Amino acid sequence: MPADLVQLVTSIAQRARAASLVLATTPSARKDAALLRLAELIPASAETLLAANQKDLAEARANQLPSHQLDRLTLTHARLDHLAESVRQVAALTDPVGTVLEEWTRPNGILIRKRRVPIGVIGIIYEARPNVTIDCAILCLKSGNAAILRGGKEIFHTNTAFAALITQALAETGLPAEAVQLIPTTDRAALNTLLKLDTLVHCIIPRGGESLIRFVAQNSTIPVIKHYTGVCFVYADQDADPAIAEAILINAKTQRPGVCNAAEQLLIHAGAAPTLLPRIAASLLAKDVQLRVDPAAAAILADASPAIAHTAATEADYTAEFLDLIMAVRIVPDLETAIATINRDSSGHTEAIITQNEASARRFQDAVDSAVVTWNASTRFNDGFEFGFGAEIGISTDRLHARGPMGLNELCTYKYVIDGSGQVRA
Amino acid sequence: MPADLVQLVTSIAQRARAASLVLATTPSARKDAALLRLAELIPASAETLLAANQKDLAEARANQLPSHQLDRLTLTHARLDHLAESVRQVAALTDPVGTVLEEWTRPNGILIRKRRVPIGVIGIIYEARPNVTIDCAILCLKSGNAAILRGGKEIFHTNTAFAALITQALAETGLPAEAVQLIPTTDRAALNTLLKLDTLVHCIIPRGGESLIRFVAQNSTIPVIKHYTGVCFVYADQDADPAIAEAILINAKTQRPGVCNAAEQLLIHAGAAPTLLPRIAASLLAKDVQLRVDPAAAAILADASPAIAHTAATEADYTAEFLDLIMAVRIVPDLETAIATINRDSSGHTEAIITQNEASARRFQDAVDSAVVTWNASTRFNDGFEFGFGAEIGISTDRLHARGPMGLNELCTYKYVIDGSGQVRA
Fold first, then answer.
1. What mean pLDDT is predicted for residues A167-175?
2. Is residue B82 part of a domain?
3. CA-based angle A348:A351:A353, to the nearest 5?
4. What's the complex ipTM?
C-alpha cells in the first residue's frame, strides 16, 4: 500500500474524529444554519456543479457507459433545485441528539439517563449517484456525525464540486470544515486503508451494489451497516380479499420494480389459488409482468379461461431479486408452509400477508423473521419517508443497531450519563 | 481448511438457525421452564461436572498454568450452587421479547409497531472461565436467541459437560435441543469457519483478552460486539468535594483493580491539586496503590509533608489499562483540557468527574465521548447489575447496537410490524 495514501486517509480520519467531537455538542441552530447555507449555495453554484458534472459525463461517454447509467449521473438545474429543497427539509427536521431515551434512579440514589448522541465518525462508501454526496453529508451533519465520503470514480468531479460547497457552507457558518470530507481519490488502496481505521472511524455504511457491499463487509474492521438485497415476498392467504391482493401485488411489483422493497415472490394458499391466481395473474400480465411459476400454479393458469401466459420457474427464481417486471409464483398448502418458505428463501427485508383473518396475520407477523412484516399493506412501505422519518440514509438489512429504514435516529447511538452524590460500589 | 470441520460447523449453524426460528415465538413460560430445569440439573449433576472439571485441571497442571488461572478454572460445589442460583435469577427476569418499543399511525392509516425481537443466532467466543458457558446460554435462551458457544481449550471438558446438561434441560422441556450448541472442537479452523457464516449467524460476541477479540474482529464477516479495554479516567475538578473525591478514587481504583470499569487514570485540576492531591495520594498509598505521576504532580507530592512516594510516569502510562494497583496521575489546567485529554487517551469506557459545580459536570457529561460518564459516582457503576438489568453478557465498548452494559434488552433487535387495510404506495 502506498505510504502517502495511508497517510492521507489517516489524516482525513484524524481530522474527522476531531470535528466529530465538536459536532457532538454543537447546538441544533448552528447545524441548521450550515445546512441552510448549503441549500443556498447549491443553486448559486449551479454553473460550477454542472461543469464538473459534464466532465464526468464526458468520461462516462468515452467509457461507453449504458444510457440508463448516464442518466443517473446527469445533473440538471431541476435536479439541483430538488437537492437544495431536500437540504432545507432535513434542516427542518427535529434534531435527534440529546433526547433522553430512558431515565431511572437506582436504590443507592444514582440517577441514570440514557441519552441519544451521535455515533461519531461515519464512513459512507457509495457508487455513482450524484445526490448521495449531499444526502449523506446532510444527514450526518444534522445528526452530529462527522462524515468521510468515498464515492465512485464515475462521479468523481461532481462529488469534488459538491464537497467543496459543503466545506464552504461549514466554514462560513463557523462549523469545523472537516466535519464532511471527501476522500480525494478513488484508489481502492485508499478505501482499504479507511476500512481498517477502527480507532478513528466508528461506522461504515456502504451504499451500492452487492459486490461493493460484500467487499466492504469482508475488508472492514469497523462495524458495517449493510443495505443488501430485498427478495420480498407477498403471501396471499386462504382468507385474502381478492381486491386487496390484486391492488397490493400490482403496487408492490410494478410501481417501481427496480427498488429493494419491490415484491419479487408470490406465494398463494392452495385453497385460494384456483380463484385468486387467475385474477392476480391477469392483472400482473396486463402490467407486463412475466410470471415464472411452479407446476401447481402452471396448471391453474393453463386451466384459466382464457389461458394466462407464464413460464416454468427454475429453483434460482425462487430466491431471485429480479428488480424487473418478473415475479416468481408458488402455491403453498398452508400458512405454516408460507412462513417456513419465506424464512428459508427471503432476504429478510420486507414481507406481506394478504388476509382477512387476523389470527393468520398475527401468526405471520410473529413468525416471519424479516425487518418489516406487513398485513394488507404494500411491501413498498419499508421506506424512511413512508415511515415518517423525514429522511433516510438507506434500508438496513442487518439486525444490529438498525433494521429496516435508517433515519436520523438510527444515525445516533446513546451514552449513559449518571448523576451521583458520592456513591461508591459496595 | 479441513472439509469435515467446515461441514461440522456449518451444520451446527444451520441447526442453530432453525432452532432460533422456533425460539423466537416460544412463550416465556416455556423458556423459563427450561431454565429452571437446568438449575435443578446443575447441582444434581455435580459429580459429573466436577469430574469433567478435574480432567481440565489435570491438563492445566500438566501444562503448568499459573495458579490464578487454575483457580479460575476450578469448579466447586459452592460455585455450582452459585451458578444454579444465577440460572434461577435469569428465569425470574422479565422476558424482553415482544415489547412494543414505539407505535404510530401514518396519515394513510397504516399502523406501524416497532417490536423487540431476538437477534437470531449469536456466537459467543470465550476463553477459560467455566461459568461463561452457562451464563451465555441462559441469557441467549431467555432472550429467545439460539447460541453457538466456542470456549477455550483449557476448559473443554467442563464446557462439554455443561453443554450436555443444557441440551438435556432443553429436550426435557420440549424446546429445540439445538438452541444451545457447543462447538465440539477448539481447532482455530472451526472458529474461522464460524466467523464467515454470515447468512446463518447474526452476531458474534467475543469475551476474553484483547488478542482474542482482535482476532475475532479481524476475521469475522458477521457483526461483532466487542468488549475491549477500559482505560477509565477520574477527573477531580477545581470544585471537587475532597471527601467525595477520596471515597470514589479508593473505590474506583482499589475495590477490584482487575476489572474493566476500575479507574486507571487520575486528572486533577491545577487549582485543586495542591490540597487535593496529597490527601488522595496518601489514601491511595495506604491501599498499596503505586502512583505514576507527571512532573507537576511530582512537585506537589514532594512538597507534601510527609513527602508521598511516587514514580515518574512514562507516556505509555497515560493510556495504560493497568488492571492492577497502579494509577497514573496528571495535573490539568482546566476542565476543557481534562475533556480533551480524556477524549484523546481514554478507551471510551467509563469516566467520572468529581465536582460540586453542576455546570462543569454537565459540560463534562456532554463533551466526554464515553459509554458511561458519571458525576460524583464511581466508575465501577458501569455494570449490568448495578444498572438494574438483572444480568449482563458483558460491557460493550462498541457504539453500534449496544454501548455500555449489555443485558437482555441488548441481546434483542427489533422488527416493524405494519397493519393495513389494503394501502398501497402512491
1. 98
2. yes
3. 150
4. 0.95
Pairwise CB contact (< 8 Å): B361 & A241: no
Q: Examine the domain organization and report whether A26 and A146 are in the same domain.
A: yes
Question: With a cut of 50, which residues of chain B have pLDDT below it?
Answer: none
- Residue A60 C-alpha, separation from nearest chain B C-alpha, in angstroms: 33
Question: Looking at the 3D structure of chain B, how many domains does it have?
Answer: 2
Q: Do B377 and A423 touch (CB under 8 A)?
A: yes
Q: Is A299 on the interface with B (CB under 8 A)?
A: no
Lowest mean pLDDT among A37-41, A177-181, A340-344, B301-305: B301-305
Does B283 contact chain A (CB < 8 Å)? Answer: no
Which helix (DSSP H) or strand (DSSP E) does residue A97 occupy? none
CATH number at residue A360: 3.40.309.10
- Give the residue from B136, B152, B121 showing the smallest Cα distance to B38: B136
Residues A181, A295, single domain; the answer is no
Q: Has residue B220 been placed in a domain? A: yes
Q: Are residues A71 and A213 in the same domain?
A: yes
Q: Is residue A389 part of a domain?
A: no
Distance of CA B202 to the CA centre of its chain: 18
pLDDT in tens, A45-98: 999 999 999 999 999 999 998 888 888 899 999 999 999 999 999 999 999 999
Domain that holds residue B263: 232-381
Provide the 3-class DSSP secondary structure of residue B274: helix
Tell whether A218 and A243 lie within a shared domain. Answer: no
CB A73 within 8 A of CB A155: yes
- Contacts across the A-B interface (CB distance below 8 Å): 209
Assess if residue A400 is contained within a domain: no
Interface of B with A in 187-216 (CB under 8 A): 198, 202-203
Residues A211 and A150 in one domain: yes
Give the per-residue pLDDT at A1: 60
Do A27 and A168 sit in the same domain of this protein?
A: yes
C-alpha B67: how far from its chain's center? 24
Q: What angle do CA A170, A174, A179 make, to 5 degrees?
A: 40
Name the DSSP letter for residue B346: S
Q: B231 CB near a chain A CB, below 8 Å?
A: no
* Interval B250-305: pLDDT, tens: 999 999 999 999 999 999 999 999 999 999 999 999 999 999 999 999 999 999 98
List own/partner pairs for B74-79 with CB under 8 A and 24 or more apart: B75/B49, B75/B50, B75/B130, B75/B158, B76/B50, B77/B43, B77/B46, B77/B50, B79/B130, B79/B131
Tell whether B404 lies on the interface with A, counting CB pairs under 8 A: yes
Record: contact A423-B225, CB cut-off 8 A: no
Q: Mean pLDDT across chain B, nearest whole number? A: 96
Residue A315: predicted pLDDT: 98
Res A134 pLDDT > 90:
yes
Is the domain of B40 the same as that of B166?
yes
Structure confidence at residue B397 (pLDDT): 92
pLDDT at A228: 85
B213, B317: one domain = no
Measured distance CA(A423)–CA(B237) in Å, rounded: 17
B96 part of contact set with chain A, CB < 8 Å: no
The pLDDT of A28-44, averaged and rounded, is 98
Q: How far is the alpha carbon of A238 from chain B, nearest alpha carbon, in Å?
A: 16
- The pLDDT, as a whole number, for residue B228 is 85
The predicted-structure confidence for B380-416, as pLDDT tens digits, reads as follows 999 999 999 998 999 999 999 999 999 999 999 999 9
Inter-chain touch B375–A418, beta carbons under 8 Å:
yes
C-alpha distances (whole Å) from B384 to each of A291, A423, B333, B395 are 53, 17, 35, 8
State the CATH number of the domain containing residue A211: 3.40.605.10
Nearest CA in chain A to B361: A419
Nearest Cα neighbor of B352 from B334, B339, B333 is: B339
CB proximity B388 to A under 8 Å: yes
